[in-house]
Input
Amino acid sequence: MTMRIASLALIAVSLGAAGPLQGADADIDPSVAQSRTVDATIEAVVLYQGRAAVTRVASQALTPGLWKLRFDSLPLSMQADTLEARSSSGRILSVDFALRPVADAASTPQAASLDDDILKLKQSIGATLDLLAGLQNELKVIESVGVRASTDASKDGGSAKLDLASLDSQLKWMSEQRARASSAIRALTEKSESLAKELTAAQARRGALGGEGTAVPSAEVLLAMTSEETVSVRLSYLVTDARWEPAYAFRAATDRNAMTIEFDAVVTQHSGEDWKGVRLSLSTARPSRAASPAAVTPWFVDVLDRMPAVTGFVPSPSVAADMPAARGEMPVEAEPTGGTLGRAARMREQRKSVAQELSVDAAVGGSGPSVTYTIALPFDAPSDDQLRRRARIAAFEAPATYVYQAQPVVSDGVFLRGTLTNASAYQLLRGKASVFVGADYVGATEFAGAAPKQEFEVFFGADPAVTARRELVKREDRQSGLFGGGLDSVSDYRVTLVNGSGRPIQVELLDRRPVSRSDKIEVRVTNNGAPLSTDAQYLAETFPQGILRWDLSVPPTPTGAAGTPVNWTVTVSRSKDIDLTPLPRE
Output
């Protein structure tokens, strides 16, 4: 009886509430939008190097008609002209930006005007920096063309293939383009510095008025609904003061049988809003707000090495439902037949499944230089420019071959060098790398980056078990030629390699010979204890510069043995009446 009375009372309350609402709906002008302030959470962030695209989402139960949904408390670092909105239903008619006063701040017309000036100055600085980055990239292209032209001219020097008029025209064009780009870079640098000074001054004047600020950015989305349903509205915008940079760890196994690359992203942001449990994507692109076109640059054609398709992490509906479990919100299912033990086993399997799916490598999107990596694990990054958060993009095996490089003419150490292949689908960007052999940290190095399938070299430090000792055995001057009219300076060199690793190793030994700058001086290398390298690239590019290279297989050195010697002789010939520049003393 008591339950029946309670049920009747609940129905009466519901009917009483429905009556006034229907009356209110009848009084609403259909041409006037109903306003509502929504509670939106940050759902996703696409992070660039210097910018971030933020997406907020709000779910609202709406009836047919016009609705004006207001997103308050947007960050001051947002760029208003990048606002856009999407909805799961209905039609978006407009997206408006406004600076709204803060209730507890000193609100005066002068303060509001300064706040508006400060926002515009920040946006102008962002646009100027975008243009500056574009010009700096353009200048790099011009410099690369100059290097290519100079290289071609050097190869053709002294031959009929060298077209001096064409070379002069190219150099003149490059000089003009370099001067134009450099002048524009200086002008934009001065402009950004001037805007920064204006911003500092405006912020100082605003601070003198009291309060943190009289207004905060907000957005209003005008939505037309033709049905009654729950709608998801997403608001996206760019913010400044957020960036990521790549960081790597190259880990070689102690026995050299395995090589692992760990590809991480180091995230810093002080955009003014905290990111909590967001879906983070890292992009290699640079979003630009510049509307004017850039200058036309040279066009080069090459074979395209396409990135293979990669299946990334896309949560299934069941996993998506389980995502809160990563933040301590594990859903509870009804107790099935089997009791507590069966439920505990299922919960363990569920946690294991979620952990496996959230720890997969980042999904790859895009191609070429503009690639996006989407992190599986929900990511937190508070707005704090002192805090650097690290996110794992991927970890993968890299095929590698190893060789020791010895150059005792400049260094006592014999360094282990690995030639690695980026066997992944990831575009590895330029950045810093930490190098490990086993559990031992070797040191840090600058990594130039590598495209998928590209080979690159990494040094793993000097191996104390392998040494190379260089010595000048003998040097003497000898008369030569008809009637002793010539003079030869003969130098005998020796490098002794000691391999204490206990196994055969491959060694790339580098040394040098004099390079003659005169047709009256001849240089020869004779009496080689081992033949020079036959590597085609070495013979074409490095050997003409006077660099000597031997590719050697060095056996283990028995205890007490002297090591493996490599001997050679350098002879510099000229007439007696010609004085040479000094030869090295060792």
Notes: The radius of gyration is 35 Å. Residues 1-24, 307-338 have pLDDT under 50 and may be disordered. Residues 400-575 form one domain.
